[in-house]
Specification:
499 residues, mainly alpha, 18 helices, 70% helix, globular
Length: 499
């Protein structure tokens, strides 16, 4: 007697062909970028172990010395260890920022599957090589710097590729919510990276890098075998990138060059039928991408938003160790709550922006609230474990919500802007410009934190608050445009009712 088909198989057979492939693309790209962030996180966890408080461990068992740095890992055993940590962070982030501007151009012209999977395998290699420095007993700074630079360059293959893949499969409709949920890969990767690195941080910190390196390389191999770049490749219908929605989208009544370009015009290029190879559009240039309305404003906003986010990513565990006096593992575990808040913030930001049609207004509102919350976290966040947990989640949501929205839904909207006349080949380039500009802030944040922290953590938080305010101000023009769109829409709606 044969058993009935498994419930999961029956569910898959009941789903339309398009839905199955869309689900596969979402899950696979989610796992890909989760592994990218998983491999970036160990450095922030291991910092406190490279320069621990050796006096708490007693005298040096080898020579009886009571030096406070006898257990530190050279060259991070000197008084300038914070500057050296900042140099490590900056080596990765500057390389990432520079490489990102070039990566999108390559991503538009090379097969995304090869580009993404190759980058993941190389990233796994350089992450593991950093950890092997522990087992090879390497104590020269240049080795760790070179590994960080190489890793930063190859990790630029990730973001433009996964956003382009998801943008190829999903239209504008509920893009904010879908990508808000999907973008939780950033926080999930940070959480898993913290937990995995924390297992070996106090014993063999080299494994805190080697294991994540193996994971990202393995996911890269899976990506090579299963990723589908375009719906047309498997006979599925391409999505509509511009859909009229007068009741939900206030920008439907603004001019055609609105910040996110919602269009109510139907044309031949929006047809759902797959394109013939001869109709394949050419990739746009870097300068053409910059001329898309909204790209410059959101790019500069992301620069300061990412500055705040990445400062927390790289320095929060050390801040908790220094201020709350937790151990390295406990600080790493507690820091994951910031990423838990980031998951919630990304989903909420996507949901609100879908409903309101105001991506910039949603970002600006969250940034306005984030500034006083950062001040409060520094003042009262370490007064008790309950307060610390609550403040970390709230700050994570408010800081990472706008960052998540800009790097996903906004990038996809602008990459398929109506001014491109149906040419979606700009998606990877636009994504790279926005995230590349943001990565400049990601490089500046940890560097400034390393330079400012010796003067006191209060000054670091003042710097973060100032960056948050600047991010909000840079969106002012787009916010005004969205508000005018809402006012015009409401005026027309009242006029129709009176008529």
């Amino acid at each position: 007697m044969r058993a009935a088909l498994a419930p999961g198989v029956r569910l898959l057979r009941a789903l339309p062909r398009d839905s199955r492939y869309r689900g596969l693309t979402l899950v696979l790209t989610f796992l890909c970028y989760t592994s990218y962030h998983l491999s970036r996180k160990p450095i922030s966890i291991v910092k406190s172990q490279l320069h621990p408080n050796c006096s708490a461990l007693g005298v040096n068992p080898h020579n009886g010395s009571n030096s406070t740095t006898w257990c530190s890992w050279a060259p991070f055993d000197q008084d300038n260890y914070k500057e050296l940590f900042g140099a490590l962070d900056n080596a990765f982030l500057v390389a990432y920022a520079i490489g990102m501007f070039i990566s999108g151009i390559f991503g538009e012209r090379l097969p995304l599957r090869y580009y993404l999977s190759g980058g993941m395998v190389l990233s796994g290699l350089f992450t593991a090589l950093f950890g092997l420095g522990y087992f090879w007993d390497i104590h020269v700074l240049w080795y760790f710097i070179i590994m960080q630079v190489c890793n930063g360059l190859v990790q630029t293959t990730g973001w433009p590729s996964v956003v382009a893949c998801v943008g190829n499969w999903f239209g504008k409709g509920k893009r904010g919510l879908i990508m808000g949920i999907w973008n939780s890969h950033t926080s999930v990767g940070n959480i898993l990276g913290s937990l995995i690195a924390g297992i070996w941080v106090s014993s063999k910190w080299g494994l805190s890098f080697i294991v994540p390196g193996i994971i990202i390389a393995a996911v890269g191999v899976a990506c090579f075998f299963f990723l589908v770049e375009h719906p047309e490749d498997v006979g599925c219908s391409p999505p509509l990138h511009h859909v009229m929605s007068e009741e939900k989208d206030p920008e439907g009544v603004t001019s055609d060059d609105g910040p996110l370009g919602a269009s109510g015009h139907s044309s031949a290029e929006h047809s759902e039928s797959p394109k013939e190879p001869s109709e394949e559009p050419e990739a746009i240039s870097f300068l053409e991408a910059l001329r898309i309305p909204g790209v410059v404003e959101f790019s500069l906003c992301l620069l300061f938003a990412k500055l705040v986010s990445y400062t927390f990513l790289y320095w929060l565990p050390l801040y908790i160790v220094n201020v709350a006096h937790f151990g390295a593992k406990e600080a790493g575990d507690l820091s994951t709550l910031f990423d838990v808040g980031g998951i919630l913030g990304g989903i909420v930001a996507g949901l609100i922006s879908d409903y309101s049609g105001g991506r910039a207004t949603t970002c600006c509102a969250m940034l306005v609230v984030a500034a006083p919350m950062l001040f409060l976290y520094n003042r009262i966040g370490q007064t008790g474990i309950g307060t610390s947990i609550a403040m970390l989640i709230v700050c994570g949501a408010l800081v990472n919500g706008p960052y998540a929205l800009i790097t996903t839904a906004v990038s996809a909207d602008l990459g398929t802007h109506e001014s491109l006349k149906g040419n979606a080949k700009a998606l990877s380039t636009v994504t790279a410009i926005i995230d590349g500009t943001g990565s400049v802030g990601a490089a500046l944040g940890p560097l400034l934190a390393g330079l400012i922290s010796p003067t006191g953590w209060n000054n670091v938080f003042y710097m973060l608050i100032a960056a948050d305010v600047l991010a909000c101000l840079l969106l002012a023009r787009v916010v005004v445009k969205e508000v005018r769109g809402w006012c015009g829409y409401m005026a027309r709606k009242r006029g129709f009712k009176q008529f």
